[in-house]
Design brief:
Elements lengths: L1 E4 L8 E2 L5 E9 L3 E8 L5 E9 L2 E9 L5 E9 L17 E5 L4 H4 L12 E4 L5 H7 L3 E5 L2 H4 L16 H5 L4 E5 L23 H22 L6 E4 L12 H16 L5 E6 L11 H9 L9 E5 L21 H6 L1 H15 L4 E8 L15 H20 L5 E4 L13 E3 L12 E3 L1 H13 L2 E7 L6 E8 L5 E7 L17 E7 L7 E6 L5 E6 L3 E7 L3 E5 L2 H6 L1 E2 L8
Parallel strand pairs: 2-8, 9-16, 10-11, 11-12, 12-13, 13-14, 14-15, 15-16
Antiparallel strand pairs: 1-3, 3-6, 4-5, 4-7, 7-8, 17-18, 19-20, 19-27, 20-21, 21-26, 22-25, 23-24, 23-26
């Protein structure tokens, strides 16, 4: 009876700020009727609404739009007399057609100068090849396969390195850097006689080292030809090995030794990273557990940096946000909070090999357990919580001392419900590589976070914040502006006893932005990129914090540095 779309040629349904776009509403009314439509934001607040008359029969009416407001839009429409609602489309539920408007932050944060390309801080999984999505989300890193299983699936010595051995996508888009993925052994080089994801060391270790030398040759030549302003090449040897490692401890270290020595023999700019476990810290099978266990056997000699994934419980979903256990009286639960995991990880790294770089190569948030894609899933409240938890996790990672964090995932995909930052409009259970998409609130919160925090160095967590208040300081490269990310979290409200996440919880916090006795203004950027001005007095600005982060842009870096604690071993970008 009624349907709607905000069509784009790139399939994203994301628009620049203050640029024209169209809302197309198609009706098939039995009688003359009136379309009643509205657009709500991620909190469910109506931003604009209207109505127009339609004749009987099939027709499409197009509204011409332009928005200086930034964020997620949920369009609803119905016929005043005939009723009806917008149909389900793929993983997007009944009742809404979603779109996004990107923020324009040029006046708020200016332009940052990068001394080298690998100072960028945000990667992405799930949009390899989709440059429109990567640009919309502010992404600079993607993961490129160079495993034995990918390059030599049928036998040894069949891969010849070349500066031209690069996916055309990267050649066309040199703003997208590569994290080179090395896990994965084909049957011919596997102790199991079939493919394994580096859960055993290769059958032929000398050949494996020779292969890695060729990867180093290849990667260094590609960098020289395509990335002249990138300082280093970044390689990740294993991918969540704790999910299946079945070989000996000695062979784990021997595999890293072969990879490290092979790559470094041909690539003087190599940064070899590991171990890439699902969780950063606080268990034997986490990255800290592997670093301690295998570090004692010599692993520190064969990694230049640490990579990890950034999950904080076995099923990362809104009901267990990254700070959930931080106010828990149980010390074991406190230790598992992501901010405390960051402290643990940086401590283990510093003890093993000081001042190493840290890459998070995956971190994402699903819907709550028990939910399945369907006509009423996800709810507006679930989408709000999904965005809040998703974006805060990455701020914690960067604020806790990672150089790079990687967003997970692009579109919804089958088997794990809700990890996508975009709805897949074609497939009811989602599909890898989907291109007909519309954004969730998380996507638009990501787009703001990347624009605000890319091009910064981490100053660290702000000292002396009260329980339930989370504040991290950053400074733009080249001793530029200070950016402070801040939010409040209440366990009691998350979720409340009725299972609904509070969208109204708030608390007050005074942030020092300047010297005592001074007054002036700072810039506030909300979670979706809307800019406003706040006055401060006696050097402090009073903020109203919510479960969604906000960003405060100020100028006194001396105050910000004195009030923050630089993460242990973090040496900048």
């Amino acid at each position: 009876m009624i349907s709607a779309d905000t069509p784009t040629t790139d399939g994203l349904r994301v628009f620049p700020n203050n640029a024209a776009f169209k809302i197309a509403i198609t009706t098939n009314a039995s009688n003359a009727d009136t379309v009643v439509w509205s657009v709500a934001d991620s909190n469910g607040a109506i931003k604009t609404q209207g109505n127009f008359a339609v004749s009987p029969g099939a027709q499409t009416n197009t509204l011409s739009c332009k928005s200086t407001w930034a964020g997620y839009g949920a369009l609803t429409a119905t016929l005043r007399s005939g009723g009806g609602t917008l149909p389900r489309s793929g993983t997007r539920p009944v009742g809404i057609a979603t779109f996004g408007v990107l923020p324009d932050l040029s006046s708020a944060i200016g332009t940052v100068a990068y001394a080298h390309q690998d100072q960028h801080r945000f990667g992405m999984q799930g949009f390899n090849g989709n440059i429109a999505a990567l640009h919309a989300l502010g992404i600079s890193w993607t993961i490129d396969d160079r495993q034995v299983s990918a390059m030599e699936p049928n036998g040894p010595n069949t891969y010849t390195p070349s500066a031209n051995d690069l996916d055309p996508f990267y050649k066309a888009n040199p703003d997208q850097m590569r994290i080179v993925r090395l896990d994965g052994l084909p049957a011919w080089d596997s102790k199991t006689g079939q493919f394994n994801d580096s859960y055993y060391a290769p059958s032929n270790m000398p050949e494996f080292q020779n292969f890695m030398a060729r990867v180093g040759t290849d990667t260094n030549a590609i960098r020289a030809a395509n990335y002249p302003n990138q300082q280093k090449n970044y390689y990740q040897v294993t991918w969540e090995p704790s999910l299946g490692w079945a070989d000996s401890d000695a062979n784990f270290v021997a595999m890293y030794k072969a990879a490290y020595e092979g790559i470094h023999s041909t690539d003087p700019n190599a940064i070899v990273m590991g171990t890439g476990n699902p969780f950063a810290a606080n268990c034997d099978t986490c990255t800290t557990g592997y670093l301690k266990k295998f570090g004692a056997l010599g692993l520190w000699n064969y990694i230049d940096a640490v990579s990890t994934h950034g999950y904080w419980n076995a099923g990362t979903y809104p009901a267990h946000p990254p700070e959930l256990q931080d106010a828990d009286p149980n010390p074991a639960n406190q230790a598992n909070a992501l901010d405390n995991q960051m402290t643990q990880l940086r401590s283990v790294m510093q003890a093993g090999k000081p001042n190493m770089k840290l890459f998070f190569t995956e971190a994402g948030t699903s819907y709550d357990p028990g939910l399945s894609y369907g006509p009423t899933v996800p709810s507006q409240n679930q989408l709000f919580a999904h965005a809040a938890v998703g974006v805060r996790a990455h701020i914690i990672v960067l604020g806790g001392g990672a150089q790079v964090t990687t967003l997970f995932y692009g579109p919804d995909y089958p088997g794990e419900v809700g990890y996508g930052s975009f709805f897949d409009l074609n497939n009811a259970q989602g599909a890898f590589g989907a291109t007909n998409l519309s954004p969730k609130p998380e996507a638009m919160a990501f787009a703001t976070m990347t624009r605000v925090l890319d091009g910064t160095n981490t100053l660290g967590r702000v000292k002396g914040t009260p329980s339930g208040t989370f504040v991290y300081g950053f400074q733009q490269l080249g001793n530029g502006k200070v950016v402070t990310a801040a939010w409040a979290h209440s366990n009691a409200q998350w979720p409340a006893s009725n299972g609904v996440y509070s969208q109204t919880y708030s608390s007050s916090y005074a942030l020092q932005v300047d010297n005592a006795g001074t007054s002036g203004n700072v810039t506030k950027i909300d979670a979706y990129g809307n800019v406003s001005t706040l006055a401060y007095n006696n050097g402090s600005v009073t903020l109203t914090l919510s479960e969604m982060p906000q960003y405060i842009v100020s100028n006194n870096a001396t105050v910000a540095k004195n009030n923050s604690t630089v993460p242990l071993g973090y040496t900048g970008q």
